[in-house]
Amino acid sequence: MSRGKTLGWSDVTPRADYMTRRALIASAAAAGLAGPALGQIVAAPSRYSTAQTPNTREEITGYNNFYELGTDKADPRKNARLLTLKPWAVQIDGLVDRPGSYGLEDILSGAQMEERIYRLRCVEAWSMVVPWVGFELNQLLARVGVQPGAKYVGFETLVRPDEMPGQRRAILDWPYREGLRLDEAMHPLTILATGLYGEEMPAQNGAPIRLVVPWKYGFKSIKSIVRITLTEREPVCTWNAMQSQEYGFYANVNPEVDHPRWSQATERRIGGGIFAPREPTQMFNGYAAEVASLYAGMDLAKFY
Ligand SMILES: Nc1nc2c(c(=O)[nH]1)N[C@H]1C(S)=C(S)[C@@H](COP(=O)(O)O)O[C@H]1N2
Ligand SMILES: [Mo]
């Protein structure tokens, strides 16, 4: 981890990966920018994308978990228009060299955007494939300078009950909070997503900026982030704090460790139709080759 000097984006984005033209337009639009020279952008699929066919935009934006906007799967889309997305800032604090409130435009200005087609496995045993647009969280962490004592990263969602009807009720202990171990946060699969299907992130999917950690149950992928805190201690996570027997801190997708109230061995792919057979759930949601080494020697039934 670099420390002691101010990092420009060019210092932390060594790879020559280029986002698609559509993704670039989306991120530039999200940042309120005119956009750089589009002609120079080369479209290249990310090596981290799955070859599976993504779910439709209708499925991805119409079947959501975003309790701030309601608990029914159709509520978030219905209530999406209530949310004010501009201006948006993210407070970055705790064990970092350059704490502060970072405007979204600033965060996106130097980020190396890519399209990442990822599998998404909800702890409720349904799944989708989503073509996100985003950038690796490690880019932002390098830019703010992670201090040596930091071992975890905590995240918080916006609290704005007048715009988020779900927050007027004590469904969860607001703000929605999540966290990762620092090595999980630094992993190249872990992204901050600002769009999907090459367009600006719909509010119901966690606009303007949300976490995506594809090998963990969906509840770890916290939406509409306003705060990122580097800590020495494991951060409080909403679902884990509420029901720790059912939702662990790690929440790695694991077909061998059942939820106390249902099996995690199989999943229902959204959009498959009522006659489609359930699909077997894969260890680490199919990302074992990339992430299993993070948990070497850990008892995954104990650290669920
Ligand atoms: N702030 C916040 N983030 C959240 C949630 C939520 O209720 N509030 N739901 C989580 C759950 S359970 C899942 S499965 C995913 C769903 O993301 P999607 O609606 O984009 O598919 O978002 C996660 N992030
Ligand atoms: Mo979920």
Automatic annotation (TrEMBL):
Record SUPFAM superfamilies: Oxidoreductase molybdopterin-binding domain
Reaction(s) this enzyme catalyzes, per UniProt: L-methionyl-[protein] + a quinone + H2O = L-methionyl-(S)-S-oxide-[protein] + a quinol; L-methionyl-[protein] + a quinone + H2O = L-methionyl-(R)-S-oxide-[protein] + a quinol
Signal peptide: none
Organism of this sequence: Phaeovulum veldkampii DSM 11550
EC number(s) stated in the UniProt entry for this protein: 1.8.5.-
GO biological process: protein repair
Post-translational modification: Predicted to be exported by the Tat system. The position of the signal peptide cleavage has not been experimentally proven.
Name of this protein: Protein-methionine-sulfoxide reductase catalytic subunit MsrP
Residues that hold Mo-molybdopterin according to the record: 64, 67-68, 122, 157, 205, 210, 221-223
Cofactor: Mo-molybdopterin
Subunit structure: Heterodimer of a catalytic subunit (MsrP) and a heme-binding subunit (MsrQ).
Keyword Oxidoreductase: yes
Keyword Ligase among record annotations: no
